# Entry
Amino acid sequence: MNITLILAAAEHDPLRLTDPFMPLSLPLLAAAAPGHAYTFVDMLAGETPDLAAPAELVGISARLTAERTAFELADAYRRRGVKVALGGPQISANPHAAAEHADAVAIGEGELLWPLIVADAQAGRLRRFYAATPRPFEARGLSLQQVPRFADLAREVHPPDRRPYRKRYAFDTVFAARGCPIDCEFCSVPALFGHALRRRPIEDVLREIDGFRGMFYLLDDTVFGRPGSYAYYQELYARLGGLRRRRLWTGQANLDAAASEEGREVIRRAARAGLVYAAIGIESIDPRVLARSGMIRKMGVETGEDALARMKEHLRFIQAQGIFVSGWFTLGHEEDDLGSVERTLAFAEELHLLPILCPLEALPGTRLHARLSREGRLDATQRVNIRHPTLSDEALLGAIERATRRAFSPRAVLRRSLHHTPLYGRDEPGAALRMRARMQRTLFTLVLQYHMRKGVIGLANDFR
Ligand code: B12
# Structure
């Protein structure tokens, strides 16, 4: 079949044209059902779907901010008589809304679902829902095929087929593990990929990385792992560091690994294997928020300890390995007031973190969404869908945007980058190699911040 796979993005998405990472969902889908003629359209990269191009099946992948665009596109294709399947994190979390716009709606992992959808589309017998989850799924009278489990990452993940991309991305993407046991109140990962951490065989991950041209992004929720997976990540990075070609790479991570010697060894090895930048979900600097939401479990803090002091210690350890860190914060928790934005910025400045300030949003399918819905505090008409006890939507977003502009001023960017320069290349044998590592990594952090600026400042706007 002629199949078009689209990564949906709103027209004014601030990440459009600024996101340097190759989206991995489309290559994984193409590999899961091979033997068809695939075309990829990455709307975040500025590509536009050609509705008139021949296609017997269209698969659209959507995250939170792309839902409306995905629905409009699906409607447009279906008006032309083309069968449409919708999938991805937002569709999995809000499948009944998607069912009004698609012939098939995928809830969960494409490795399990896409082969079924393609086969059924070919046979002309598409069902409305395809769900890969061990939890019961209520199809509300519509047709359903359910696979009551998550994918086996050793047997069911095939090497992603990246060939249909026309664009060259600055970063390739790869994943080693899926699922998260922490279960923070606002996060949709446990619902999408389960509470158990599933891991791919290390050889499979390294084979992919060895084929990359240059830098890559390891998509795991925490590239430092968790107690129980430290040995896996230690081995992965030891072997990654031993590959013939060394590459710089990036990923997101939690702080808890820095609280134990086993975890610290993962961090050291990751840094030696080329981890140049880590995005760390610090979420809030208010210990009350961290405790109530369950986020404290990823901060590496024991009961009775001074949470912020411990978190600072962990951050400094990570930076001391030569890793540039951005701190991702969510603002608008019920304990927050307008001063929280300034206090968060001051925390980031003290630690030389690149601050990414995000308005807290209730994602469908999360415990936060369920709680606020029960409490009658969700408001879909606002840019941020949570009604805060004291802060208006505009006041919060305005404060975030002003703080972000300051954090990304050329002076702040330069100071942050130069602060890290002496920390780079400490393990390099010899002064010349050390100097090279310092220059290369400092340049990397400057270019990174330059590219992130527009996307991050735009996040507070209403663009969907
Ligand atoms: C890396 C990442 C990013 C990167 C993306 C880089 C890139 N170019 O891909 C960056 C930093 C840019 C980013 C941004 C955002 N992200 Co993000 N991100 C992630 C992260 C950590 C990994 C995503 C990933 O690539 N996973 C691997 C791919 C293969 O998984 P996948 O896309 O889900 O696809 C699988 C299935 O969903 C399914 N599938 C996907 N599409 C389709 C389509 C069909 C037809 C079918 C059958 C199946 C199917 O099959 C795939 C294989 O199993 C996830 C958390 C996670 N663990 O997944 C959060 C996550 C996806 N992000 C999330 C959010 C909220 C965002 C932002 C909206 C944040 C913000 N406020 O701006 C933005 C939106 C970006 C945008 N405009 O699209 C949420 C999404 C929740 C939701 N309801 O959609 C997640 C789940 C995090 C969370 N804690 O809840 N993100």
Remarks:
- DSSP finds 16 helices and 15 strands in the chain.
- The chain has two domains: 2-147, 172-458.
